[in-house]
Design goal:
By secondary structure, the chain is α+β, with helices and mostly antiparallel strands. It is built from eight helices and three strands; from the N terminus they run H-H-H-H-H-H-E-E-E-H-H. The chain has a three-stranded antiparallel beta sheet with strand order 1-2-3. Helix 2 runs parallel beside helix 6, helix 4 packs across helix 6 and helix 5 packs across helix 6. This is COMM domain-containing protein.
């Protein structure tokens, strides 16, 4: 099968078609860096100066190249289908050879990442909690020990029937200080998930 890309994605890749092979190799390195670390504006600025174009064009080309590789992995294109898809986009045979090497090197890694994204992992369903305070004990008559007990309900889709779910209750107990720390870590993770890099990666895997 031939890979079908959107018009804007083809437009982003078109800047690479007229470039020499050594420039395309540099873009493959930028695409790999994008997959591993996210966008690199400084590198895009440097590349833009060398090619006398706007940095946005470089960024779009890198994202287009990442999308080409990810979509090829998603559809599990054979080497022959990938070759034909690249040639159909207007790349030369010399370009195709470079892109095919890049595809072969990253294919398994990206495929594994896509497989992990399709797992039906447990997710939040409900939470019940209560606040407890131990005012004193025989050993420590003036100690106050606050605790929060939580009943967390997780829901998981089962593989036995479409739409069927199973639920599991997890009992957790912690003190207020540790609970505040957990909340801060989760809020930081939530902010990271909304970052530009995370959104770009999520769009690449959709």
């Amino acid at each position: 099968m031939l890979l079908s890309l959107k018009d804007d994605q083809k437009q982003h890749l078109s800047v690479l078609i007229s470039q020499p092979t050594n420039v395309l190799q540099d873009f493959c390195k930028l695409a790999l860096d994008f997959l591993l670390k996210g966008p690199a504006p400084k590198l895009y600025q440097t590349a833009a100066q060398k090619l006398s174009v706007q940095p946005e064009i470089i960024r779009n080309a890198v994202e287009g190249l990442v999308n080409l590789i990810v979509e090829s992995c998603r559809h599990q294109l054979s080497d022959l289908d990938f070759r034909d898809s690249v040639l159909t986009l207007g790349f030369t045979e010399e370009h195709q050879e470079i892109l095919e090497v890049f595809y072969k090197e990253k294919k398994q890694e990206i495929h594994d990442a896509l497989s992990r994204l399709t797992l039906d992992l447990p997710h939040y369903y409900d939470l019940e909690w209560r606040f407890e305070v131990q005012l004193a004990s025989r050993a420590l008559q003036h100690q106050v020990t606050p605790l929060i007990t939580m009943n967390l309900t997780l829901e998981t889709k089962t593989a036995l029937a479409s739409g069927s779910t199973s639920r599991k209750n997890v009992i957790l107990q912690t003190d207020p200080t540790n609970l505040v720390h957990i909340a801060q870590v989760l809020e930081e993770a939530l902010r990271d998930s909304r970052s530009q890099h995370s959104r770009q990666i999520q769009r690449s895997f959709k």
